[in-house]
Structure formats: structure tokens, C-alpha cells
Write a structure and sequence with these properties.
By secondary structure, the protein is mainly alpha-helical. It has 18 helices and no strands.
Length: 430
């Protein structure tokens, strides 16, 4: 790998570490503040909100500037969201601002890989960056759990930091420093040499009119991916995977409290256990899978859905830990090759930043809709066990449909599928 790849990985690690620790801190902030259960569940869709709203714009923005600079600005926005939590704004609103920073960060983070590396290294690069991201999730949720625990929070509260009155706020103040570190690393990311794609601006029109002019371009990019015979399969798979896994992060917290009687600090460790399995699966996929054979992992998505349902029958930690590792492993092995295939097709069809923005729109819209459904269901009395059952059935059923969709393409458009797989084997076409 090129040297710049390791700088990108370092920046991603610390930014993701803070994101996941902040989620635990925000849950605890709402809990200690007496907020109802549905508001804690609503943290997931609120984080996804700006991913959906700004998807037509952040991709073009990422392609118009050096991506290291975009990532720097994005981490600065996350710092603003943290400060809003500390100084009296509602945690849901402040967490949405952190999601705004993440929405701008993502097209640059993944888009720069396609600028820096050839197609033959994309699966490997995705495997390692996803593995590192999952590692940061593990450490992040553990860090968040410990920061709101009595030992570390007691030390932080003894510092008498401004705006800090309880354990959750003390942990948020500490996480600001990690975001600042990630932002500094962003400044060290080298320019890839790829020509920027400036935003098309008409001097005779207002800023709002020029901004809205990006909507037709985003719609065109979406159509290109959804009509591409491999792009549509990889996009639908990653959309479903991240929609479910994004919400499972909170569902595991709720399930561990209901099934095992765990506190926030204890439950956060189980989210890390799922992430361990995902990291192992991601690294394994980067070793054994190739870009042109990525669609072979579709059956793993069906198995993942069945395993989600089986969570309802676990009531002991000794079974839960290996089970959650297996569940995460299937997810990691599924998403890495599909994500790489989607990046490859998007880069060929429209450019890295725009492609990732389309991907984010679909994935985060799925997180937003499923999260809103879960939050509403919780408000109406649905238990964590009922939500897990619905999620598992949805995953298995939709992944089965995606598999049938790909089989249909192979039967009715064999030449096109073969042509696209041939392109995936050639670095020069990337």
C-alpha cells in the first residue's frame, strides 16, 4: 500500500473511535437526564438524518476539494456537535450535527481509496480499513462505556471542566480531544494527484439556485448505479446491511439490558463483541475474496438474518459472546467485497465522491427508516425481542430477493455481467 493509505487509516481510526464512544455517552446522557426509551433509540436515525438530506451535495463537495481537507472540515463539525451537547442543547439535536460531520466525511474517506489505489487492491484496502474501523468500534464502545463508568468519570469530573456536570458530559468533553487529533491527522493526508471536479457555479444565479442545481446530477448518478447490473446488486446488499447493522448497535444495548440485565457500561462491551467478529470477517474477506467474485457472498446475508432471530433464545453470556462473534463475522465477510465492488462500479460510472454519496444516501435512508420504525415501535410498546425478530426476518427475506435478482441478471443479461466482471479484473480500467 502507498504511504498515504496508512495516514488515511489513522485518521479514520480516531474519528470512528470518537464516533462510537460518543454514541454510548449520548445514550447515557439521555438516560441520566430521564429521557424516555424512544429518544435513546432515536439517536440512530438522528445520526443518519443529514446523510439523507445532504447526499446530493456532499459527494460533489468531496470531488471538488482535496479529500484530506474535506475530512478535516468534517471532524471540525463533529467537535461543534460535542460542544452543543456540553452547553445545553438537546442531545438529539447535537447528535444530528455530529451526523452532519460524518455525512461529509464518508464520501471523502472512501472516495480517496479509489483515487489512491488500483482496482486489484480495493478489496484488500476495504478489508483493512473496515477491519480497522471495526477495531475502532470495539475500542470506541468500550471506551465510551468506561468513560461513563465510575472510575474514569470520577477522575474527569475532578478536573472541573467548563460545562461538565455529570459522567456523560465528562466523557463527551474527553472525546473532543480525540476529534481534534483526527482532524490534525487529516491535514497530513497527501494529495492523490487526481484532478478535482469543481462545482458548477453560474455567477448569474444565487447560491441556493446553484446548490439545487446539483439535484439533477445526483439523480442521474443514482440511476446509473441502480441500472448497472453489478452496481445494483452491491448497492442493494450494502444498503440492507448497513441499515440493519446501524440499528443493531442500539438493539444489542437494549437486548443485553432485557436478556442479561446489563448496565450501559456492561452492554457496551457486547457491541464490541459483535465488532470483533466483523473485523475478523472483514480481514478474511480481504484475503480470500476477489472483486469479480464478490456476488458469491449473498447467501451469507440470508444466514445472517436467521442468526439475528436466534438472539431471542440466548440468555447467558457464555453463549452470547461466541454467537455475537459469529454474527459479526458473517457481516464482515459479506460487506467488504460488496462494498469494494460498489466503489469500483461507482468510480467507473461517475467518480468516487458522487458514488459514495449515492451509496450513503441509500444506506443511511435505510438506517433512518428502520431506526424510526424501531423508535416508534418502542414508544408503542414493542420489546427488544420483537424488534430483533422483525429485523432478522427482513434481512433473510430481502437478501433472498437480492440473490434471485442477481440470478435473473445472469440469465437474461449474461454478456453484460461477464463484461462488467472482466472490467473488475483490470486495473487499467479503474
Amino acid at each position: 500500500m502507498k504511504r498515504g493509505f496508512y495516514t488515511i487509516m489513522s485518521a479514520q481510526f480516531f474519528s470512528s473511535l470518537a464516533d462510537n464512544a460518543l454514541f454510548v455517552a449520548a445514550v447515557e446522557l439521555l438516560r441520566t437526564g430521564g429521557a424516555p426509551e424512544w429518544q435513546r433509540a432515536a439517536l440512530v436515525p438522528m445520526f443518519a438524518l443529514f446523510y439523507v438530506i445532504l447526499a446530493p451535495f456532499v459527494g460533489a463537495f468531496a470531488d471538488a476539494l482535496p479529500k484530506g481537507r474535506v475530512m478535516f472540515f468534517s471532524n471540525a463539525i463533529k467537535v461543534v456537535g460535542c460542544l452543543m451537547m456540553l452547553f445545553g442543547h438537546h442531545p438529539l439535536m447535537a447528535y444530528a450535527v455530529v451526523g452532519l460531520g460524518a455525512a461529509a466525511y464518508s464520501p471523502a474517506k472512501y472516495g480517496i481509496l479509489t483515487e489512491l489505489l488500483p482496482a486489484s487492491q480495493l478489496v484488500k484496502a476495504n478489508g483493512w480499513i473496515e477491519g480497522l474501523t471495526i477495531t475502532s468500534i470495539i475500542l470506541g464502545v468500550l471506551l465510551g462505556g468506561q468513560l461513563v463508568g465510575p472510575v474514569l468519570s470520577g477522575y474527569l469530573l475532578s478536573l472541573n471542566l467548563p460545562g461538565v456536570q455529570n459522567a456523560a458530559e465528562a466523557s463527551i468533553a474527553a472525546l473532543v480531544l480525540i476529534y481534534v487529533l483526527a482532524a490534525w491527522i487529516n491535514t497530513r493526508i497527501p494529495h492523490t494527484g487526481v484532478a478535482m471536479r469543481p462545482l458548477r457555479q453560474d455567477p448569474s444565479k444565487s447560491l441556493l439556485s446553484n446548490t439545487l442545481a446539483l439535484l439533477p446530477d445526483f439523480w442521474n448518478c443514482s440511476q446509473r448505479l441502480w441500472t448497472d447490473k453489478l452496481g445494483q446488486i452491491s448497492l442493494s446488499t450494502t444498503t440492507l446491511f448497513w441499515g440493519v447493522s446501524g440499528n443493531l448497535r442500539y438493539i444489542v444495548l437494549a437486548w443485553s439490558a432485557a436478556a442479561l440485565g446489563y448496565s450501559t457500561t456492561q452492554a457496551s462491551s457486547l457491541v464490541g463483541v459483535v465488532a470483533i467478529g466483523t473485523a475478523v470477517g472483514a480481514v478474511a474477506a480481504s484475503t480470500y475474496m476477489k472483486l469479480e467474485t464478490a456476488t458469491r457472498v449473498i447467501p451469507l446475508g440470508i444466514a445472517m438474518g436467521v442468526l439475528v432471530i436466534c438472539m431471542n433464545f440466548i440468555d447467558t453470556i457464555w453463549i452470547a459472546v461466541p454467537f455475537l462473534i459469529l454474527l459479526g463475522g458473517l457481516g464482515g465477510f459479506l460487506v467488504v467485497p460488496m462494498n469494494a465492488l460498489l466503489q469500483h462500479r461507482g468510480h467507473n460510472l461517475m467518480g468516487a465522491g458522487r458514488s459514495i454519496a449515492v451509496q450513503n444516501f441509500n444506506e443511511q435512508a435505510c438506517i433512518l427508516l428502520l431506526g424510526a420504525f424501531y423508535s416508534l415501535s418502542t414508544k408503542l410498546g414493542l420489546s427488544a425481542f420483537g424488534a430483533i425478530t422483525l429485523f432478522g426476518v427482513a434481512v433473510a427475506g430481502i437478501m433472498w430477493c437480492i440473490g434471485r435478482w442477481h440470478a435473473y441478471n445472469c440469465r437474461h443479461y449474461p454478456r453484460e455481467v461477464v463484461r462488467l466482471r472482466k472490467i473488475a479484473r483490470q486495473d487499467d480500467s479503474h
